[in-house]
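Acetylhydrolase
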Amino acid sequence: MTVVLTRRHLLTAALAAGAAVPWAGTGPASAASTRLTLPKPTGPDVAGTVALHLIDEARAGRELMISVWYPASRDVRHRSKAAWLADAPLRALLDANGFPADAATSPITVAHENAPASRRIGRQPVILYSHGAGGHRSETTIVAQELVSHGYIVVTVDHTDDAYTQFPDGRLSLPADDRPATPWGQVADMRFVLDRIEELAAGGNPDAERRPLPEGLATALDLRRVGMYGWSKGGTATALMMNTDRRVQAGLSLDGPMESDPPVTRIDRPFMLMTAQFTRAAEPAVARFWSLLHGWRRNVQADGARHGGYCDHQWLIPELATITGMSNKDLTDWIGTLDPATAVRIQQAYPLAFFEQHLRGRRQHLLAGPSPAFPEVRFLP
């Protein structure tokens, strides 16, 4: 039997743990023209992105929006850059979390929409992303951009009814408290998405409207090397995906609670935990999961990190705090004491090192133990 958890249930649990769930703020908002920003990735590759609308007829016509991020041709003239979140879902997200809906406009990512894929680097590993409760596929764009800038292809997924998303015809879909919101539901979405990415790699077009795909995208996908990561509930979904789909060869959880029914079982492939609030010491489910890892494993933790320390919240909430006049105390309550710029460096370095080692076979000293470059990051035995 699968436990049915509503978005409200999951957010309440996170708050009880002191976690920073999607934003809340106080104070006056500044002009609506204030645009949020994102840090730049460190790698050499130009990024492209394309949004796809998928329909799973086997599950009563379930609709999903995904984005495929990929290394792009350097000729991106006349290609606009994608927004972090479209206007309508961004306004809904801000409003639902205590901000004026027009408090700010969306950051602009580094990814050029529908740009031709790079032919220079050949086929590259594919990494899936599953978001947290009441989240959206853009919430770890800092991580996604970093991976793409180093040649990876990243597929991010909106889990409809538990996400802020918009379909091509303009329909807005928001998290729904009266709909099931389990990690197992996210696994069903991710397996369907991976099937569709295989279809794309074989030369098909899985987009429901059959919109043109970026030139060269199909031949850029190496589905012999597939990884997955997730934040919060998406971290749990990553573990469950590895339980049920051997196509995923390496998994990374960004502070996942590891609670599900049926629970996670033994994993024999590489898995890394980046914990903050949902630690092995505080959460029996996380401790149990650690004991089930029988392949390569690591547990790293950044001092001062709250639940959102490994996603875009850690960077964007301070910007929103400045716009809305949030007090320093309230800001610290939300993001902890981990410096946002340091958090960005951690988000860029550790996921990249994990997938470099386990999808490309490039040994990473960063994963061997504590690094003087990151004194905040502890390796938990």
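thats it. The CA atoms of residues 27 and 325 lie 5 Å apart. Residues 1-32 have pLDDT under 50 and may be disordered. bye
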